[in-house]
């Protein structure tokens, strides 16, 4: 085997059968030279070589046939695949449908499904299925846990074979848009929309285009000042408007097929329209008009809040901010603007309620943002399969309408009938050999793409697919690993912050416990624990955040008796002696869940160790090392959280376990 | 006035009189060309020019006379000055005595003392009076709050007019040794003892020598590996011994008059003898033998402790570490080794007991280390005049012998009759215009030097000298500023950590409160606060640290009833309801001291504002800005500490003040 410079993740195409009969590929109304079709056929060749040792032939005779047929009755980017003993027919209406269909066939073949049993018809749930890189041009990655950037280094861009593999991976799970640079646009990154970088961006964009992926860039709202030498970046200033129009014309001319801009404005120190007394809508619409002539879109992040809050202030509530800043302008955003909204109102904690802005807006394009980079969820050291969390978000009923009111409905466009809609993830990749630091974290990368393409898939289906494609092991081992993935989020939640309160992490780093780490900070992130209880009153007697939801959610969240217990401390300040539905007191729940979570983390490590003989030794070692760190982390969380609450509440653990 | 690039601090020589009669300088048995004498006369010229507008003349006639006489009856580096109407006579046995005598005359003249009233005889209390720079070669300064290094930048050294002024300042307060680089020696700094830097170091050393100052370097204990290509740096390895011998020969040949090495070994990740199962004495003595032929010395830091402690471990006590690691080898250190011992057993907190190693060692040269860089004492934003703290340290009776048992006795050499003894300060300078960030922080720079030279001076005498020399204002204003300085340490202590517990600071940064910031850390820094009380039991029932002292200190510290209250929480875990001698409970003391401390910080700011008309406007503005920050900091400390203990103890403030 040749030495690899990076892994192939779930596209390893490990041998599944000795049936090495060659394949013939026939195209009807597509050309094999069409750029994405061409990539699809090349991928098919890779797949059958790996799975069967077979090749593609032009000869007739004893061959299987893959017939690709253009069929305009198939949805955009959808496909229909149907097998029989002699081969498979793939129907699609566009090139992306072809490549997604090919990857679907390869998934089936990898799962040892017989040709004649292949039968699937698929259409993407979401029009936009995006990855957001937080890669900086110095090569660092904000909240990256898998090495450095594979796009940038030393304020320059590079494009190589790894970039091609990356595009393959993304296409294989249905991703059709990628923002390559960090939303915090500073320094050289401001120049990505100038001649300094157009050639390199174009080179990368061409690779992405071969895989049906549009390239997007995060932009600096202050670019008219920094690049244009203007005095202001006021979105209503004529000079600024003209500058963005001219700049966008240049961008789309230099980068034909370019997707548009992602903007983080007025957030955590970034410039934005507020500086000039303008609204978020003013900012977004001005840019939208500048890119509209070229079919471009503006993705505008809603992560706007007061990040210089006084912890003594019990009235201001960061959780309210997104809704408060954006709701009033619902309907004013132009058609090619889409608001990117984080799944929760805070910031990617292991447990948050669903953002009330999702569905709170009823006349605005909405893009759901999740984070597979495990910033608060274990840094890709701790195992935390996030798809169950994303499913909860998608399945959440907002009650924004009588039907089609789930988050999945809203971000797919079903609720409002809009075309600009979808899901985006802050990606968890870097230039590590295995792309994701922890090999098992690739399940989130794979899973997000699959889920964004088909929100009906279950967490378990996705986990099983990923396990089967990634590893070459027996069914019992697959079951075990799938089970580990499925439990992992709950385990992580147990040993970290209880019942939705969040934020008990080491400041800045966001790994490991620090119960008071964000308690007296400026970030709006408080647990308000005292001798008697813990939690933030967000009911109508508190900050009123619960009232941002539609009924019956608002009433349920408002009442500690009705509030879902996993969110109890997010919405209410609760005494330690409060009885939970289980009969445990709150304090006892804190102790129990932390002891359990730690024990379960140890069990995860033991389960992994039991797979030693069926996993590649290097993969095994890398992951085993991380499980050791996870167990240490879980112990630290258990002991710090339990000690903190014991020292504060003075209530002993009923079970008499060691609390320090 | 010409634009200055940096201030002259206390050597501003502001005009004191219109009597501009010139001076004639006569030297007996010294030559005006002697390098330090030459500097002294040049300084005298600067002084009389500033004070009087006078000059030095060779003419006789109507002139004052400064007569410098070599007098071998005067102690090393001492001086005798005696004025009469016609001038002043300065007697000294060596060149350093001459320059110190000149600065003493200038101090008197600056204080408007009449010539005929000048009369002082002085001899340095301490043979070594040193500054330790924590300057890194990239220009940064570890724990620096006054800009960047004025020695290093971009891995190179520079020497310029500012360096000369720096040497003048140091000589003016009696400093005779300076370590120019950080004790954490990494990267380029390892090469300071190689040809790469010898020329530059020599250039700097020559400037220092003009002012009677020896230059020292911090070295990397692993230099034999990093520079010499050896496999080990084991101090008993013959190759290592030979390497250091050859290297030291080279160093002293290239740098004639070089002082020696400062070593931080086996501390906070630095390499050291422990790696090879050797003792600290093995390491120090090996190096000492290598420099002995050239009159060099080894300054060996005692800051050795376990910095990967488990917070769950109530037995291990960082406070014990210095004594435990070094006491057993008392008497084994070679004569040219001196142990540098921090004033307290922890790390420069605003209140600690005196290190039991001081005087605990009775057969070893000891150098007291203090920190005027305000790492834990307000970052040169908050006013904190540290001389009262240093006085407490010097005046502390260790009971190591029947007489001459104070720390001042020990580090002066009086206790043991040793010659190698003294005081060192981690310096608070940088390349800021005013050298010390906060102009008022210069009082600590001035004060340390003066105190190291004469430990009998009171905090007030030093403060008054510094105020008079630095500012040109009326007596009432001088009194006010002096009073501000004298109160400031107590004020800082009040609004920060109570009763000696320390460490409630923001991790890493060490500015601002974070009550639990170091509570669950690896640094051995815990307060152990729970619902009932706070403090660390270091009595014979706890870690036994109190027993490292001689009697009667050991018994006093061991008993909470006898323990000095300002150290109560350092030595004991005390219930919040404990009655202090004032009648306050412990918790009420915490509240009261924090409210008082904050109010007093506001008063300091108000006092400074009242000096607006008598202080240079730029100085006023710089300091006023810092007082604003100090008040904000004091509020944050007050509120976080009070909230933390109220939330934990559930005991209300008797006075009903606002606690969040």
Report on the structure:
The structure is a homodimer of 660-residue chains. By secondary structure, chain A is of the alpha/beta class. Chain A folds into three domains: 9-122, Chitobiase/beta-hexosaminidase domain 2-like (Chitobiase, domain 2); 128-470, Glycosidases (TIM Barrel, Alpha-Beta Barrel), CATH 3.20.20; 495-536 and 573-649, Alpha-d-glucuronidase, C-terminal Domain (Alpha-Beta Complex), CATH 3.90.1330. The first copy, chain A, contains 17 helices and 17 strands. Chain A has helices at 35-52, 95-110, 161-172, 195-210, 223-226, 238-254, 280-291, 321-326, 387-395, 407-412, 442-453, 459-470, 475-495, 553-558, 568-571, 586-610, 617-649, and strands at 23-28, 64-70, 79-84, 87-92, 119-122, 128-132, 152-153, 156-157, 177-179, 214-219, 260-263, 297-301, 337-342, 366-371, 422-426, 533-534, 574-575. Chain A has an eight-stranded parallel barrel. A five-stranded mixed beta sheet of chain A has the order 1-2-4-3-5, with helices on one face. In chain A, strand 1 (23-28), helix 1 (35-52) and strand 2 (64-70) form a beta-alpha-beta unit. The first copy, chain A, is globular, with a radius of gyration of 25 Å. The model of chain A has no long low-confidence stretch (mean pLDDT 97). The interface between A and B is medium-sized, with 23 and 23 residues.
- Number of spatially distinct domains of chain A: 3
Mean pLDDT over all positions of chain A: 97
In DSSP terms, counting alpha (H) and pi (I) runs of 4 or more, how many helices of chain A?
17
Major sheet size, sense and barrel closure of chain A: 8 strands, parallel, barrel
- End-to-end distance of chain A: 52 Å
